[in-house]
Structures are given as C-alpha cells and as structure tokens.
C-alpha cells in the first residue's frame, strides 16, 4: 500500500492491450458497498438508540469513521509541517553559502532539504490516496443508508 506496487501487473497488461473488466483489481473488503453500508448502519442504529429524538448522521459517521479521519488529519498536519520546514532549511542553506563556511554543515543542510522534499512528496501521495478511499467509503455508506441499497 505504501508504494502502490500492487498496480504494476495491471499496468503491464494495459501496455500490451486494452483492459477489460476481468483485468481489474479485486476491490478490498473495506471498500465494498455492503461492508460500508453495514458499518455505517450499525453506527446509525447505536446513535438512534442513544439519541432517539435528535439522532445525527454526522455523529454516526464520526463513530464509524472518526478514527480514520483523525489519522488522516494527523498525516495532513505532518505533511503541512514539512512544508514549513523546507523554506527554513533553504534559508539556512543560502545563509551558509553566503558565509562561505566549510565543514559538514552544508552537506547536512543539502541532504536535509532533499529528504524533506522526498518525504513530503511521499506523505502527500499517501494523504491523497487515503482521503480518496475515505471519500469513496463515505459516499458508498451514505448512499446505502439513504437509498437502502448496498449491492
């Protein structure tokens, strides 16, 4: 999941010929409409039992997917924090070059700047991927609850 390597076999087939339905990857269990529906429905039932008069779909969604959303928020905070670190490292590196100092500090700053960019890029792709998964799960769950369809 970290490097999206699981898509390579399908990409290889796509290079040689046009993909058809049988070539597509199997949908993970947590992304299937029935499991999304069941998870939100069970949270909705608990919500309806506890707050019968003022049941809230938002509360039911937070019970079902709150921790996932919180982990995504933490990933976004780390990613944005790295976005602030890069200009600070670049500023230090420029000041170091202007001073003309020798030593290992320049190498450390340059490597840190490169690693920060690589890590930020990696975290950004993970955040986008996981957010898209959560949006798909939420959309599938809500549509299942509203229309009572989960096939």
UniProtKB/TrEMBL annotation:
Keywords: ATP-binding, Nucleotide-binding. One of its GO terms (cellular component) is membrane. This is ABC transmembrane type-1 domain-containing protein. It comes from Zizania palustris (Northern wild rice). PANTHER family: ATP-BINDING CASSETTE SUB-FAMILY C, ATP-BINDING CASSETTE SUB-FAMILY C MEMBER 10. GO terms for molecular function: ATP binding; ATPase-coupled transmembrane transporter activity. It comes from the Eukaryota.
């Amino acid at each position: 999941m970290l490097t999206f390597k699981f898509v390579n076999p399908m990409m290889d087939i796509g290079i040689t010929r046009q993909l058809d339905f049988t070539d597509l990857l199997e949908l993970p269990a947590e992304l299937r409409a029935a499991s999304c529906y069941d998870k939100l429905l069970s949270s909705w039932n608990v919500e309806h039992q506890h707050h019968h008069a003022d049941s809230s779909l938002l509360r039911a969604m937070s019970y079902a997917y709150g921790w996932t959303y919180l982990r995504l928020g933490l990933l976004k905070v780390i990613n944005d924090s790295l976005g602030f670190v890069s200009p600070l490292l670049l500023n230090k590196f420029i000041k170091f070059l202007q001073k003309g100092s020798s030593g290992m500090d320049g190498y450390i700053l340059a490597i840190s700047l490169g690693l920060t960019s690589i890590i930020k890029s990696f975290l950004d792709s993970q955040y986008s991927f996981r957010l898209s998964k959560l949006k798909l799960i939420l959309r599938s769950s809500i549509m299942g609850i509203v229309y009572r369809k989960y096939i």
